[in-house]
Sequence to fold (325 residues):
Amino acid sequence: MKRLSRRAALASIGVALLAATGVQAQTYPVKPVSLIVGFAPGGSADILARLLAQKLTLSLGQPVVVENKPGAGATLATAAVAAAVADGHTLLFVTSGHAGSSALYPKLPYDTLTSFVPVAKVGSTPVLVVVPAASPFRTLKDVVNAARAAPGKLNYAAGGGGATTTNLAAEFLKADARLEMQAIPYKGSGPALTALLGGELDLGFDIPTSALPHIKSAKMRALAVTSQVRTSLMPEVPTVAELGWPGFEVTGWFGVLAPAGTPPGVVARLNKEVNQALELPDVKERLMALAVEGGSGSPAAFAALIESDTRRYVETIRRIGIKID
Fold:
């Protein structure tokens, strides 16, 4: 028998690996899939992750189980997924705060860009500045005036804190308006909004997914929205930009990541199933009610968004000098 040349041997190994990947993609999933959320139950990320998991359970033929691992601005959950086996059975439900985490946490055990492969964008949404119904603040200008009159006296919560988009929206507003307010950390939107409703906080920054039910029940009111244009669900709520800070914009997004090295066929299958789920009438209706615009699109498009926002957030965080205690 002739000895195979090095080139032929490498080629045969490559063919074998491709074949193995193809088989894995065709048979995936072979066991329940864990969808890890880095925030406490009841918050925006948790609500959307559970909606998606319900649909993926039906289309994938295996249970998709949401696991909450709150703490450290979602970096604990993110680290766990980065270290997981890259076979598509452990996924991360991520928010746009992921893009700024490397600037806030310089000693992360993973790289926000290279340790993951983007699967699909799920949706996007603005951030709302909210106060409890009993608050004396009727407008964002009221908050600004009070904060300037007594620097450091007002307190607020911004979702899970740390690398979340809601936290960054608060920090950007504080920097642009030159405000000193005390940030109170919580492990997710659910606990933060509970504290706001209980009168423990002066104001909050959150997305409509979590805040809208409380606004509709008149337990809270929205003072401003951080998108470029007003949201169609609450057209009466002005943007931060039109209230005196031109160019101000912070828009959050949600998506699914897998550990780096996940077979392309598995990523393609997941992307297809997520996109199909987002087209379901009941999912569209639910997203609209939560003021979330459905995502859809390719893994490459989601990767480009993550890379773009990472550059923007990291640059801004370092320029402003945001620190995590």
Notes: The chain has eleven helices and eleven strands.
